[in-house]
């Protein structure tokens, strides 16, 4: 529980933690950013690390001169693309066994199935869409690997989606992250970036699952 509390505090106050890290360790902040983005996108059991909020805050910090936009953005793009490639490779290698896993503390099978349904419905475009959806963006490349999506096709969506996500969200933070109203309501904005896309993903998975169930019950309808 203590670890969970620390993690939640980091996610909700990522701006303070990053600023403290810069003050203490300087340029090592770029290594930390790379690590967080890579792990959040590249390890299927780590979907709870900050993604959108981190990019937004990094953009805001670039706007104040604490970070260099020209260094941070390319580095995080590489991390996001490489992370997805890692996740895809894991899914492609271990995927056939994953459906035999039971619910555990390290793997949420229900969340995985929701991501699977979402992927099945929207196909390869999910790789791009999922970049903007917490939790789903961690599972989508894994599911692409499980589904044996070709590496070339996956890489096309991976690179395009990664660039759009990192450059887009970081640029928003650069432009608006230091606006007084945004700074005052930053915690609410962070919660919104977590829950709103998450709810959309859950609804998409539920709707796809319901449609599949109806088709099974009424095959000729």
Automatic annotation (TrEMBL):
InterPro entries: DedA-like, VTT_dom. Pfam families: VTT_dom (PF09335). It is found in: Cell membrane. Keywords: Cell membrane, Membrane, Transmembrane, Transmembrane helix. The chain crosses the membrane at residues 27-49, 56-82, 156-176, 188-206. The keyword Transmembrane applies. The keyword Cell membrane applies. It comes from Roseateles agri. It is a multi-pass membrane protein. Residues 49-173 form the VTT domain. This is VTT domain-containing protein. The lineage of its organism: Bacteria, Pseudomonadati, Pseudomonadota, Betaproteobacteria, Burkholderiales. Its main location: membrane. Belongs to the DedA family.
């Amino acid at each position: 529980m203590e670890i969970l509390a620390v993690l939640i505090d980091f996610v909700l106050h990522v701006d303070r933690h990053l600023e403290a890290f810069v003050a203490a360790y300087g340029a090592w902040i770029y290594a930390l950013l790379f690590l967080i983005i890579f792990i959040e996108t590249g390890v299927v059991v780590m979907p709870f690390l900050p993604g959108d909020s981190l990019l937004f805050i990094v953009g805001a910090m670039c706007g104040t001169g604490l970070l260099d936009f020209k260094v941070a953005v390319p580095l995080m793009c590489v991390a996001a693309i490489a992370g997805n490639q890692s996740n895809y490779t894991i899914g492609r290698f271990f995927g056939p066994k994953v459906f035999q896993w039971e619910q555990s503390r390290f793997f949420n099978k229900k969340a995985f199935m929701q991501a699977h349904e979402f992927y099945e419905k929207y196909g390869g475009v999910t790789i791009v869409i999922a970049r903007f959806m917490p939790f789903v963006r961690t599972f989508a490349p894994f599911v692409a690997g499980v589904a044996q999506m070709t590496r070339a096709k996956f890489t096309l969506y991976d690179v395009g989606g990664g660039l759009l996500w990192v450059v887009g969200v970081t640029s928003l933070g650069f432009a608006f992250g230091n606006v007084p109203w945004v700074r005052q309501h930053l915690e609410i904005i962070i919660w919104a970036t977590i829950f709103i896309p998450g709810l959309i993903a859950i609804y998409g998975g539920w709707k796809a699952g319901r449609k599949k169930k109806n088709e099974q019950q009424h095959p000729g309808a």
